[in-house]
Here is the input.
Amino acid sequence: MRIGLILPSLDDSGVARAAASLSSLLSEHHEVHVITVYRHEPLQEWSGSFHVLDVPPASPGDELPRRLGLFIRRILALRRIKAELELDVSVSFSEALSIQNIFTAGSDRPVVSHHTVLSRNENLDDIYGRGVKALVRLTYPRAAGIICVSMESATDLTDAYGIDPRQVAVIPNHIDVDAIEGAAVLPARWNDVFTAPVILTAGRLTHAKGQWHLIRVFARLKELIPDLKLVIMGDGDLREYLQGLSEDLGLKTFTGGEPGEYDVYFAGFQRNPYGFMAHSDLFVLPSLREALPLALMEAMALGTPVAAADCGGPREILAPSSDPSFKTEKTEFADYGVLLPPFDGEMRAADDELCREERLWVDTLHEIITDRKVLDSYSERARERASSSALMPSGGGGLISLMPW
Here is the structure.
């Protein structure tokens, strides 16, 4: 079977990691073609052949006519490359590309791989975004199948956009626990940093990830635990703002070069993040919204205790027996990690008072970090959950067989 995987880029995002992992799994039995929107140096290890639509990405700052023009150009380019490759199945990994995938369906069967909680995507609140959401409602029913990574993302599609639940399957992102454990080597130049207690977070430096809230929380924690350090892995549009906030809070901030004695470390994109995860005392996810956070599952696979905002998918990972639609307003010591109320998303300055959620996070994280028994208990349970076949499919063969054509 000839399968196309269509995504914006093989960047440092969780979606790109999921698509790259899927390419490797499917390549064992199928002919795989990875198709990206624009030319770039891939940051992920992928399998199959690589193709580029060669259409520049639109950005929220672009005028509407330009964004519509790029949308149409991608449709034309995608139709052309599908015909050249004679695809049997085309799997798309973003809302706009999924719409374009369905529009260009010929002999191929278009499949939507849905990795977001669409109604809560603040990047789609403008005129263009509202148009994309309207097209989701109109086009997704024509897909051969819709694969959501979590119940949260699936329920959002069926409830907010009227998609028939019979057309939707929920298949969590795949992680290879053995491969992650085998790759968990910390670069030698970071060894001294991890001799102190470390809080780690990882993700694109974007609004949806909410890292500024964690930096503000950390500044207060640092007063209570003087040797505590915060390591932030990832890159993105908010890097300059986040670094400035850290410095304005009086935190000694590492922004590049040789790691030394700092409070906050902006480690940038790490092709192999697993050594950082394995050597951290606590992995923290401050996101404002998540469908199913891959970095959280990877940290758990390494036995790292986790605390996460109750912003969607984390509940399905950490409290699988609970109602996935429930949102906590207080600290919840769940079965496999700690869930906390999501932040309000307001981008505050260093001299602004902590909001209610930030104060609660300070108290909870302080309690966790200073209690070795709690950390050890959640470390063991994290490994157990990450190895659970109910959460992590052991292979990619089920993807095609579970697609509801």
Remarks:
- The CA atoms of residues 223 and 276 lie 24 Å apart.
- The first strand starts at residue 2 and ends at 7.
